């Protein structure tokens, strides 16, 4: 399991912490013996309402465990726990798990308590998912933000001290002399500072340094003691030579012990190979300046690896260990010089945008930190930002940043704050989302900053969401959280009906987006991708409709009709797998037509009311087609299950079914022709269409509505377009009396 840096920070600096809305911090142990910090939170009035069921918040807390495990979402860096009562007094429990990047590791878990056993068991509450997540985020974000800010300051302070101590030790190494005591003391300080940093960072570099320096100190102290002992023994030997003859035997015996050959059970110390290898590495390092950039990255990486091997030998007590203070000092000096050179080369490569070469310096990627991160944002260098986030384990969502003297709650806040025509931040925001940053972040006095992207025309940051569809605009959970955010804002501000109208319209829009995504899920995956790719392409190629589209998205008539189309489409598609296949074929046909047509339409001449009128008419036609196809399916199913004896008279009810079938097919074929691929014809002048496309009113209506669907991502209408209409009726044939079923042709 990985170490939990938050737990370690709390554990070490418990008494220094000041956290908002935390009433008590205490260490606890769960049933499995694992330690965790329990952060009791200030209890705030909060109420969930779900299908007339009311859940009242009783208490809540944050748990930060000692260890975390990436492949087990419940063993995340921390999780939020809340307890509720319903109106009957029954207890409920909510868990929302977050990783070190403040991303959720799994969907929220909502449990009900058994009144007898007092144990909690999960209950289904999908409709409350967005509110659960919003509640958790709203209660943990300020605390995590403050924790991470204090942790970052502590790491920065310790690293400054560590670097200063390293410089002091290096200066003493140049004047080691015969007495290394001052150097050893300096190394001890370096080791202790590295040991303090080890539990606070996710990389292992300080742990390696701590162990390496500790072994150096141990070996140097041992050599110093051995030298002192030899010196002392020589002095005693000299004194003994002046003493009576009886003492000469003891001195001679001691000298014999010093220079005797070891027996087979004792280790021999042969430092020659160790010193030779170290000298070879020093020679290679000295030649570094003559190499090309790519050779330098390879050589530095290899030198670092070989030095790590020599450091490891100190711990293994091998026969080749050095017995010279000078060799040990040279080992430490070369180790430091390699890392300083690696750091300088890495920074140079990043400055010159040589990310391919910088990738080779993996051994030095631990040096990437918040300073590099803020530099990339400040310079709007999205490629550098991408490299840093790919190779450095940074928290994104609740990590405060100071850029040009201004404190920002997170990198996403900075992007929203600084985005303008002169300083576009869309590429940086796109990279942040790619690596897990959430755009559902609040400003100082309003709801989430992302809402204007959906209500504005051609918002410059919207492409960042389109580039990360799965995390944003194609995510049902994303819209659920947006809805919960607006509901919480309306409640917190106690807005009246007029004040909340704009937010209610946004909520309705997000609800419709959820319905569209649910409808889209019923289609085959390749077709889903085709539709979404076509939407993106059309949005890139067509900008004139965006004003109409934004108005239509929040039009109550359009929303109501769209929901009805969505509902009846789902009911129809449930009836037959074959119908779903036909539907997919039909949708593919229409998507191809719309994509082609969108490149040749100029809609500047049309007004909004005309556009809306065509849209409403089209939606009504969709409803009619869906209902007729559903009825036709039922009629044909009855006909397929019908048979009668040859020679007998056809029943009137059967004739009625066949007549109904013929009428429905004829009507549906009329609709299909109406909305089929546009054919060449004369221009009516209402809209200038290119390539001599027919410009009749119905064709214009089809083009407009189809364009609207693509551009506003109304996938529910794609899925409700008429399926391929059967070209032949199902007829029932008379069969012999001994036959057992119908013959259908």
From TrEMBL:
Tree of life domain: Bacteria
Coiled-coil intervals, chain numbering: 148-175
UniProtKB keywords: Coiled coil
Organism: Legionella maceachernii
Ranges annotated as biased composition (Polar residues): 233-247
Name recorded for this polypeptide: Coiled-coil-containing protein
Disordered: annotated span: 228-247
């Amino acid at each position: 399991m990985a170490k939990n840096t938050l737990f370690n920070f709390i554990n070490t600096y418990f008494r220094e912490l000041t956290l908002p809305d935390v009433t008590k911090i205490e260490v606890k142990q769960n049933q499995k013996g694992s330690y965790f910090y329990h952060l009791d939170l200030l209890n705030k009035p909060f109420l969930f309402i779900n299908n007339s069921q009311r859940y009242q918040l009783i208490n809540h807390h944050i748990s930060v465990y000692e260890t975390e495990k990436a492949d087990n979402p419940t063993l995340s860096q921390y999780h939020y726990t809340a307890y509720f009562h319903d109106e009957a007094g029954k207890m409920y429990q909510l868990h929302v798990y977050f990783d070190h990047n403040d991303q959720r590791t799994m969907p929220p878990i909502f449990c009900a308590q058994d009144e007898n056993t007092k144990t909690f068991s999960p209950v289904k509450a999908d409709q409350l998912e967005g509110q659960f997540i919003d509640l958790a985020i709203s209660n943990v974000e300020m605390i995590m933000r403050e924790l991470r800010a204090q942790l970052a300051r502590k790491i920065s302070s310790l690293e400054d001290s560590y670097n200063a101590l390293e410089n002091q030790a290096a200066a003493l190494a140049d004047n080691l002399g015969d007495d290394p005591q001052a150097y050893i003391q300096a190394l001890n300080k370096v080791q202790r500072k590295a040991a303090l940093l080890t539990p606070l960072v996710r990389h292992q570099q300080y742990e390696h340094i701590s162990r390496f320096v500790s072994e150096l100190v141990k070996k140097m102290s041992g050599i110093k003691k051995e030298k002192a002992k030899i010196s002392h023994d020589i002095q005693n030997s000299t004194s003994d030579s002046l003493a009576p003859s009886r003492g000469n035997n003891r001195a001679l015996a001691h000298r014999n012990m010093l220079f005797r050959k070891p027996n087979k059970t004792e280790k021999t110390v042969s430092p020659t190979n160790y010193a030779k290898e170290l000298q070879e590495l020093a020679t290679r390092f000295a030649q570094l300046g003559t190499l090309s950039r790519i050779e330098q990255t390879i050589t530095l990486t290899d030198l670092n690896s070989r030095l790590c091997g020599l450091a490891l030998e100190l711990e293994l007590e091998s026969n080749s260990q050095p017995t010279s203070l000078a060799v040990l000092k040279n080992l430490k000096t070369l180790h430091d010089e390699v890392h300083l050179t690696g750091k300088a080369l890495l920074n140079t490569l990043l400055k010159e945008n040589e990310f391919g070469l910088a990738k080779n310096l993996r051994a030095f990627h631990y040096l990437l930190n918040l300073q590099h991160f803020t530099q990339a944002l400040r310079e709007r260098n999205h490629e550098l930002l991408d490299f840093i986030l790919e190779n450095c384990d940074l928290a994104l969502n609740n990590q405060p940043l100071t850029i040009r003297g201004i404190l920002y709650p997170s990198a996403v806040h900075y992007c929203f704050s600084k985005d303008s025509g002169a300083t576009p931040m869309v590429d940086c925001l796109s990279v942040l989302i790619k690596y897990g940053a959430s755009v559902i972040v609040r400003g100082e006095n309003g709801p989430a900053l992302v809402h204007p992207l959906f209500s504005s025309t051609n918002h410059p940051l919207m492409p960042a969401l389109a580039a990360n569809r799965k995390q944003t605009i194609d995510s049902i959970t994303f819209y659920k959280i947006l809805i919960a955010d607006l509901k919480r804002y309306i409640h917190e501000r106690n807005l009246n009906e007029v004040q909340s109208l704009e937010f209610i319209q946004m909520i309705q829009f997000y609800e419709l987006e959820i319905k569209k995504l649910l409808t889209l899920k019923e289609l085959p995956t390749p077709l889903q991708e085709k539709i979404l790719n076509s939407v993106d392409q059309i949005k890139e190629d067509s900008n004139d409709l965006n004003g109409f589209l934004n108005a239509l998205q929040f039009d109550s008539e359009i929303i109501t009709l769209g929901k009805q189309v969505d509902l009846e489409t789902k009911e129809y598609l449930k009836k037959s797998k074959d119908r779903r296949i036909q539907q997919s074929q039909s949708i593919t046909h229409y998507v191809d037509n719309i994509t082609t047509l969108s490149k040749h339409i100029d809609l500047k001449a049309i007004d909004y009311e005309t556009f809306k009128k065509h849209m409403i008419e089209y939606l009504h036609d969709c409803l009619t087609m869906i209902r007729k196809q559903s009825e036709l399916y039922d009629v044909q199913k009855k006909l397929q299950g019908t048979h009668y004896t040859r020679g007998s008279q056809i029943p009137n009810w059967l004739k009625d079914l066949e007549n109904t079938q013929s009428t429905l097919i004829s009507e549906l074929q009329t609709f299909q022709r109406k909305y089929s691929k546009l054919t060449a014809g004369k221009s009516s002048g209402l809209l200038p269409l290119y390539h001599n496309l027919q410009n009749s009113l119905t064709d214009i209506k089809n083009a407009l509505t189809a364009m609207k669907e693509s551009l506003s991502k109304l996938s529910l209408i794609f899925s409700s377009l008429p399926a391929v209409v059967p070209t032949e009726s199902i007829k029932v044939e008379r069969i012999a009396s001994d036959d057992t079923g119908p013959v259908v042709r």
